[in-house]
Write a structure and sequence with these properties.
About 35% of the residues lie in helices and about 25% in strands. By secondary structure, it is an alpha/beta fold. The chain has two domains: about 140 residues, Rossmann fold (3-Layer(aba) Sandwich); about 160 residues, Dihydrodipicolinate Reductase, domain 2 (2-Layer Sandwich). The strands form two sheets. It has a nine-stranded mixed sheet. The longest helix has 20 residues. Bound molecules: nicotinamide-adenine-dinucleotide. Nicotinamide-adenine-dinucleotide binds next to helix 1.
Length: about 350
């Protein structure tokens, strides 16, 4: 195989970025569109080129025997039949986060892919940002020592009624955790190269929230390598200007990221000022998604190890579920126990 022929299911705001990125890739070709919404199909034909189109994945896979991978950019609820089909046709899957809206269901999907022996990668695009890679590099080169503690702040007024945004988060349970914090928790595991041990968390909804369920998350995580992280995330900040800061205090200095896509700085203990790190130019939602697609293609075309696998993703999903339990029961939740217990549950 020299090129991946990809069927793209889901042509909403996220699927459009996937269509653009697949079209720009030398390793991949966009073979077909799948979406039950005729308007979405029509727009894709106009914006990303004329392709065979289908209203469901089953018809696409039946009609196009030359497909060799599936990208799922559908909402996280209701993916089972699509994943089952990909398993049946032995087609590698690249799936948007979160894999599903519970750890148990996600574990079931991971087991299905394992049983069918197909690779399943999750679209964790923030891992592939230049700023994330540069943070990893700072830590690996021991410029400011080893991470010891951090705070991660993401405060945004997300107007969920905007046309360019998906609508299901307005009604779903714990939208901030499943849709947004999942990226942040994954970044903590990825950059600190460790696994979570426990969390104490409270989630709630501010009085003015346009979302049905909680948009605020405050949590304290402990990680296996001794790192402690204080997390604050909200989609219903009381100011329209976004605020992001990820600060890590390390054994010889600090790392401070001031924007979710860029602005990386560090300082050693006695430095009077921060030093900024030069980052490669970045096209928002494109460069990072290109990183995901390149990793997926490299694993399939060049036998590179699969990155951001479904199994790995379960560990970040366990952090989400631990936050929910902690908030409901007002207690510290042991994350490895939750992970092991869920994985050993029979599938239903
Ligand atoms: N990684 C990121 O940065 C990022 C950013 C935004 C969204 N996402 C994720 O991408 C996914 C989709 O998000 P969105 O904002 O595009 O959602 P959306 O609800 O706005 O759009 C989803 C699209 O999928 C279509 N669809 C629904 N069921 C389908 C099915 N069975 N087969 C084919 N198409 C189907 C819908 O008609 C719609 O066009 C979610 O998992 C979301 O969390 C990721």
């Amino acid at each position: 195989m020299s090129k991946l022929s990809i069927v793209l299911a889901g042509l909403g705001p996220r699927g459009k970025f996937w269509a653009e990125v697949i079209n720009r890739s030398a390793d991949c070709e966009l073979a077909a569109y799948v979406d039950p919404n005729p308007e979405a199909l029509k727009n894709a034909q106009k914006q990303f080129g004329l392709k065979p189109q289908f209203t469901n994945l089953a018809d696409a896979l039946k009609s196009l025997p030359s497909i060799n991978a599936v990208v799922l950019a559908t909402p996280p609820e209701g993916r089972e039949s699509q994943i089952r089909l990909a398993c049946e046709y032995r087609l590698p899957l690249l799936i948007e986060k979160p894999l599903a809206l519970s750890l148990k269901e996600s574990a079931k999907f991971v087991k299905m892919a394992e049983a069918a022996n197909i690779p399943m990668m999750i679209g964790l695009n923030f891992r592939y940002l230049g700023v994330t890679q540069a943070t990893l590099d700072l830590i690996k080169k021991d410029i400011v020592g080893k991470p010891a503690f951090g705070h991660f702040t993401y405060e945004r007024w997300r107007d969920g009624t905007q046309a360019r945004l998906n609508k299901y988060p307005l009604e779903m349970q714990q939208p901030m955790l499943w849709e947004q914090s999942i990226h942040h928790f994954d970044l903590m595991r990825f950059v600190y190269e460790t696994e979570p041990i426990s969390v104490y968390c409270k989630t709630w909804n501010p009085s003015w929230s346009m979302y049905k369920d909680d948009t605020n998350v405050s949590a304290i995580f402990s990680f296996a390598n001794g790192v402690t992280v204080t997390y604050q995330g909200t989609w219903q900040s009381a100011w329209q200007e976004p605020h992001f800061e990820w600060r890590t205090d390390c054994t010889k200095g600090v790392i401070i990221q001031k924007d979710q896509f860029s602005e990386l700085n560090y300082a050693k203990l006695h430095d009077a000022q921060l030093s900024s790190i030069a980052l490669a130019p970045h096209e928002t939602w494109i460069t990072d998604t290109q990183g995901v697609l390149a990793a997926f293609a490299n694993s399939l075309l060049r036998n590179q190890p699969l990155e951001a696998s479904g199994f790995d993703h379960l560990k970040s999903l366990a952090m989400i579920e631990a936050c929910i339990i902690s908030s409901q029961e007002a207690r510290v939740v042991d994350i490895p126990t939750l992970f092991d217990t869920t994985l050993s549950l029979p599938d239903s």
